């Protein structure tokens, strides 16, 4: 599956097959400007940042079990999003800091580092990488 966001005429989070077929809206209400998106491949959850609502939310792959992880001023200007173990990682584009957020309760928001010109973040875990030569 391919997951993506759109905030043109109607903001939404969507999924489709890798060939573009079976396009399905999984979130289309109470959403304004979804930008960064990350997947929990093990538990089949989709996380996204809404930069207009200053929120990070989550749903399952079918658009159910929606809830807000964190909302408010402390997470303004987020870009990029990654999931690793119990945390979400994101970049605050205002002060270029890497933030760590507990993905289960939105607590434990910590600034880990500052990077010049950071706009995206990825977590690479050895277990999820295919063996290459």
From TrEMBL:
A Gene Ontology cellular-component term: plasma membrane
Pfam families: Ldl_recept_b
MF annotations from Gene Ontology: Wnt receptor activity; Wnt-protein binding
GO annotation, biological process: canonical Wnt signaling pathway
Domain of life: Eukaryota
InterPro entries according to UniProt: 6-blade_b-propeller_TolB-like (IPR011042), Cueball_EGF_LRP_Nidogen (IPR050778), LDLR_classB_rpt (IPR000033)
LDL-receptor class B repeats: 1-43, 44-87
Protein name, UniProt field: LRP1B protein
Organism: Corythaeola cristata (Great blue turaco)
Encoding gene (name): Lrp1b_0
């Amino acid at each position: 599956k391919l997951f993506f966001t759109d905030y043109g005429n109607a903001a939404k989070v969507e999924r489709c097959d890798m060939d573009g077929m079976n396009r399905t809206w999984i979130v289309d209400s109470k959403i304004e400007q979804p930008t960064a998106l990350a997947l929990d491949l093990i538990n089949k959850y989709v996380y996204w940042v809404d930069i207009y609502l200053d929120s990070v939310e989550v749903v399952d792959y079918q658009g159910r079990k929606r809830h807000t992880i964190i909302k408010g001023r402390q997470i303004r200007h987020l870009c990029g999003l990654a999931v690793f173990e119990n945390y979400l990682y994101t970049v605050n584009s205002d002060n270029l800091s890497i933030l760590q957020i507990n993905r289960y309760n939105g607590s434990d928001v910590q600034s880990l580092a500052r990077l010049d010109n950071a706009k995206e973040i990825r977590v690479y875990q050895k277990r999820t990488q295919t063996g290459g030569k």
